[in-house]
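Teaching assistant's notes for section 4

Start the section by putting this record on the projector. Ask students to predict, before seeing the second block, whether DUF2642 domain-containing protein will look compact or extended. Collect guesses on the board.
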Amino acid sequence: MRLISTIRLHLLHAKIAQQQVAVWTNEGKIWRGRIEKVEELFVQLRQDANLLIHVPISVIEEVRHN
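Reveal the predicted structure now:
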């Protein structure tokens, strides 16, 4: 498992670059979208259907830039 600070760095980089991302959680769930906000404990992802999702950074295993 990666450190939360490392994951947060990947998320911030993707937000600055305005990239679409895919986020894998430690439960095997995949969320895709554009990062709206990176908070202390959560990241907000905006999906294509204009749905805003809050994912706890502590459960994120991997961030991939699309």
